[in-house]
Amino acid sequence: MQKASESPVATGFWGQRTGWTILKQVLFLEPLPGGSRWAAAFGSLLLFAFMLQVLTGILLAMNYSPSVESAWPSVKFIQSEPMGAFIRALHHWGSSAMVILLLAHLLQVFIWGAYKKPRELTWMVGVLLLVCTLGLAFTGYLLPWDQKAYWATKVGLGMISTVPGIGDDLRGLLQGGPQMGNLTLTRFFAIHTYVLPGLIIFLVVVHLYLFRLHGVTPPWWQSPQELQAQSEPFWPKQLLKDGIVWLIFLLALGLWCYYRAAPLENPADPSQPYEARPEWYFMFLFRLLRFFKGPYEVVGTFVLPLVFFLVLFFWPLLDRSPYRDPRRRPIAIGLLGLGTASLIGFTIYAIATDVRMTVPAQASVTPAEPADPVQRADVAKVYNANCASCHGVEGNGKQIRAAMPTIPDFTSLSWQKSQTNLEIVHRIQDGNEPLMPAYRDKLSEQQILALAIYVRAFEIGTAEASPATTPVKPKSVQPPTPAANMAPVQIYKAYCLACHDADGRGRIVGSALGTMPDFTDSKWQTGHSDSELKQSILNGKGKFMLPMKDKLSDADADKMVAYVRAFREGKQVVAVQPTLPIVPPPPAEPTVVPPSKPAAPPVTPPAAKPATTDSAARTRVATEMYRQYCLSCHGTDGRGNDLRAGMPAIPDFTRPAWQESRSVPQLIASILDGKGSLMPAFRGRVNEEQARDLAAYVRAFGPAAPTTEPPSTPSDADFQKRFDELQRQWSELQKQLQQPPPKP
């Protein structure tokens, strides 16, 4: 029995108050039988690797948002910062390093016989730490919410559901519902950052306590007398060896992470097919499942893994040999060699024979003919890389709407109906600084066109869909069609301004139609009830007022009724003048020919193309004018199909014959002075320079303008033709994806 005088005594100010001297004696001055050695550093290295994971995990969590809308963009943001990418690489590759170190430490302990009496519980706690570490790897795998993470986790949850009796309940608990979604991500995040790290810290404390209680396992080749003679404290030699091993590990991992960034694939998309593959340390199990199919699948997913871990956990009770020398334990060492060789060999075989992991970048067979342009553009990848961080995977942009209220909702039918194809292309091309950058120099022309098609594909329930071919969904699941996030003034500008004018009087178009109401007239206001106005807005009126029920909800229609009421007695005027600057025309521009003399313009050298920034500004002005004055009649595609029944003479801007029959001066004259009984004159609301830009905008709907006419804005020749062709290819591609694969 140890005497009281031999016990460590707390001395000094801090020692008496904190017991630091006693703690130092226990932690650093414990005698090591046989002295310090490099082999004893593996356990402390494993603890260091876990501490590194905790530190990098905390730094990542400070910039991570666990939701399906923001998880991938937040990881993408981390990857975009050099230090963020390095920290994520440390965390990603550090998890693989931790699995390797844990398996190496387990082999070392097994070979040394360190699980034998009285250290059985120390071994069992170590096996539990192995299970928790694999759990950390599995739960952390989903957090980037990319394609690989989503589908690999889906496969893993499917394996969990095969557990007899409780499989479905366990899967539902982890998944948080019938499908993977926000609850799945938040639960995995909570388990990965709180539950498992807390459990590991508790088990590490128990493991270290048992380790210090029973002492370091001495080498089997030295006698007790030799061990006692070579005994020395943990401080300073063993701690120095541990520190050197830590430093080598950190430098090696840091170099690896510097040259190998953590992977991040496209955002998770359940609608897209994907060949799921787990990380390398689960590949042996993934390959094993191919041998067990149908009712025997549970053998590979549950029975064999359970038997393996139970044998591993209770091995100190199964191996009753008193010897620690490996040469005197042939059965145990033979089983260890066979198990290790099988595990490593099967993992290598699984990786080497898996096509997805061998050739991840391209197909093994090159197609004889190139893919369609929309496929070559790889539009989904372009969108995910450049747009998803703001507009979201679903295109509604709701994850950053609080900070950026003006961000459009691509799923809004009203937004889709208020944007021309050309406008979407130019907005991608020229941007909208400072919020949206220009992609003119970042993406090719083909990618920009394909991206505009992709934006169009977000629309919910197109108006052109045939009732005979489009299934009608029940009211409970009918997709929303309101003008989401559009204020009444925006709706008025998009659909009403061209006819009813900025002050609501509608005098210009009214002179041609004769039936245009004057919203400022008190008699008209009192003669029409709110319900009557609402019905006119939703269901249309007469030949020229189109129904808006496919664009506005009841609530939006009520807001528009109130907006129309605000015009009473001229109390409201809509600001319609474009806010972007108009660049003065070059001096070489030809003179506008009056409408009474529609002669061909004089042949002059083409004017120099304006600078990119000036062209972008002029294009945006023309876009704004087209939306305000032309869109309600001519439509987003320039064909005017919506009003053709009541206005047969309305032109189709996409027809080559119509484009070839009009010169630029004629278009400008029609814009300024009107044409026929239905096209009003816009002189006074549009100046000549703006009319020139608007004429160039109209030109872009069809074939290229004649070469004798100088370009006013950088519009793409035969834009609509190429846009329609891409849209046709996109539709064909969607049909191919929806067709069931051929039976083998």
Walkthrough of the structure:
This protein has 744 residues and is mainly α. Among the domains are: 37-357, Up-down Bundle (Cytochrome Bc1 Complex, Chain C), CATH 1.20.810; 612-730, Cytochrome Bc1 Complex, Chain D, domain 2 (Orthogonal Bundle). It has 34 helices and two strands. The protein has helices spanning 12-18, 20-28, 41-61, 71-80, 82-112, 120-141, 147-160, 167-175, 182-214, 224-229, 237-259, 283-288, 297-313, 315-318, 330-352, 355-358, 373-376, 379-386, 388-391, 413-417, 421-430, 445-456, 488-495, 497-500, 507-513, 522-526, 530-539, 554-565, 612-629, 631-634, 656-660, 664-673, 688-699, 719-738, and strands spanning 31-32, 232-233. The protein has a two-stranded antiparallel sheet. The chain is elongated. Residues 1-5, 357-371, 461-484, 579-612, 704-717 and 740-744 have low confidence and may be disordered.
CATH class of the domain at 37-357: Mainly Alpha
Query: Count the strands?
Result: 2
Any idea what the radius of gyration is? 36 Å
Overall pLDDT score: 75
